[in-house]
């Protein structure tokens, strides 16, 4: 006769197999989608000068030298973008930098009004005509690029959860800093 704890362990193994397999398949599917939609970035992306709407000139290499940089392509009317911007606000601290790129979202004034209306304060590059997105081969919004020491080490497009962003950051901090 089996003890109750052996029965419990056997049941746990059966249930975990049925729960783990779909999660692993979902992760594989999402990685394939990310790989398919990954941008073909130019080789000089790290040193390309970018100009924010508040007058700062910067490069991805400078912003990512000491800590990871999240580069977030978004649109004003994108629902998934609106869900993720508050998460990016929380991440823009001493351990992580965030740079947002407003893709085809209107004039600088419209973007400032939008950000102020949503109580968001993040550095923004205005890509009003989509030229930067075109040069960087960004085909979907939202798109998140994670840059470490001037090198894009991870990309994802479409809605991204806060735990998904945190997990990517943890991985990058562990292996790149």
Short overview:
The chain is α/β, with parallel strands linked by helices and 177 residues long. It has helices at 4-37, 60-63, 79-91, 108-117, 131-135, 162-176; strands at residues 50-51, 57-58, 69-74, 97-103, 124-127, 143-148, 151-157.
Characterization of this structure:
With 177 residues, this protein is of the alpha/beta class. Helices cover 46% and strands 19% of the residues. The protein has six helices and seven strands; from the N terminus they run αββαβαβαβαββα. Strands 5-4-3-6-7 form a five-stranded mixed β-sheet. It starts with a helix and ends with a helix.
| Rg (C-alpha, Å) | 20 Å
Please give the oligomerization state of what you see: single chain
* Beta-strand proportion: 15-25%
Order of helices and strands: HEEHEHEHEHEEH
Write the layout of secondary structure elements.
Blueprint: H1 4-37, E1 50-51, E2 57-58, H2 60-63, E3 69-74, H3 79-91, E4 97-103, H4 108-117, E5 124-127, H5 131-135, E6 143-148, E7 151-157, H6 162-176
Parallel strand pairs: 3-4, 4-5
Antiparallel strand pairs: 1-2, 3-6, 6-7
Provide keyphrases for this structure:
177 residues; alpha/beta; two-stranded antiparallel sheet; 7 strands
